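Render LamG domain-containing protein in 3D.
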Amino acid sequence: MARPSKTDELQRLLALGVEGDLQPAERDRLAAMLATDDEAQEAAIAYLLNDSLLSSSLSHVDALDRQSILAQFSQSVPEPAVSPSADAAAPHDQHRSAISSQSILERSLVWRPRMLWPIATLAAVIALVVSNVFLLRELHKGEEESLPVTSIARLSESTQCLWDGDIPAVPGNRQELKLNRSLRLLEGIAEVELSYVQAGDASVHVEGPAGWLITDTGQPCLSYGKMTVNSSSGSHIRSIDTPMGRVSFEGYTSLGVMYFGSELEIHAFSGAATLDSLWFEKNPFGPNCYIESPTQTIDSGQMMRISIRDNAPAKVTRGLADPSRFASMLSMAADSIHFDAKYERAVRRDNPLAYWRFDHIDDKTIPNEMGDEFDARIVGEVETQGDRHNRYLVFGESLDPAHVDAAIVTDTSFGQRLSRNCTVEVWVKPSHYQQASIIGLVKGPNDDDMRARHGLLLELTGPRAVAVTAAYPGRVRFLNRFPADLSPKSLDESSFSSEVYMLRRWQHLVAVKDEDERRLYINGQLESREHDTRPIDDDLTLILGRLHRDRPERSFVGQLDELAVYDYPLSEQQIRRHHELVRSVPSVQKGI
């Protein structure tokens, strides 16, 4: 009989690893092959790219083929300071601390994989992930048999969600979730309600982008993304499995876990947790890959972050648990705002062409406070909240189509009044990271089911990599396109904020276009300045809350108030005065 080739042996070991059936000797053999043999490393990449394991561990691969991935792996590129999908980073990003919450956020927002690691690091990670399947089984051998079988797991959506593939949940309805099924949430916040036989209940929130599943014993597994767990004292949810190890806890616990490629964070909001991982074993793959203690404990109120960079030792950073790192831990009502008479007088004094306050809505008509022209109307259903003196719009309050696809539009064009100079000012509170249009000045028939032609656009970029905004996840985008009919061809028509936008906090956005440049301000601070001599197209109308007038796409989920459009460029002094009348101290951009 012919002796099995090295390739056959490698594929056999990888297959066993994926199935979780590696024995200790086989695990050591696989680690040795990946650490020393370039051909074995390439073969492992090719094999695992055809399996969900690598996709789940390093974030899902959609656009890159094997050759381009191997080409990137073969280059020993250092860890980028910002999003690995970014082609160009803002200069200040390069000077951030390695433990900056901002830089971690940017990595967490990226949908494309962390494809900039040297081969040796990849080999260690592949071996780590495969071996962790074995480790988790060994550490908790026999434990799962004692856990009660989940009576039911119901999947609902806390916000409008975008999924990769078919999901057996109807928005707004709690549908039973098929257990042991891998799910990929691209955008939004999903909630899972777990009920156990003769035990308590628990809830799990998943924030996109994320890959995850619920096992048949009711234990969540997170392959990448963010997840929070709230369990009652009688609940039998006991752990969250990640590619870097198992996070365990008991009794009443409120816990947040995030994992992206080479970084794991655990936040124990209430109750303690422990982490068991191969990275805590001495010398599993090399002399530098270990931490002294085999098990790490995270006390109640504390946070632990584990970072792995190339061949350096795994780095552990500890601090206070931070609920603001998870959108599901924040309430939309936590940050309130009030626009008093002083603010209204300041805006009126600056004489906008149109000013909508949303305090008085009559039969879905929103009056322009500056005159009879440019009244706006509601398409679909948009809620208002607040008191009788100060109300604001709430988009996506319900998950029924009338709310999800809602918009505010004007039927009268601005003609040539914005052709050279324009300012758009608004206050927004995003629910979550989302690819969503806030304000568009567009051409196109008012009620035709077609794509709008955008002259000006102010939008949020989401966590996923899309064609135009792939390098700028979680940013505010300001676009000026002339003519509006022009097909998108380059990024020079767009500006992006240098910082990510905040979640569930009010932010003051101002987009200014004059004859020579476009400027973007957030909370009174200049975020972007770009040379732009193109004029603004004529005959534009306004759409608020989604990308197209009558085609639901990029719908905004969050709150919005005090929208003004000016036919001249507001000065920096005017912008800061408006902001400081509401927020006396400029808000600090903080990533989540």
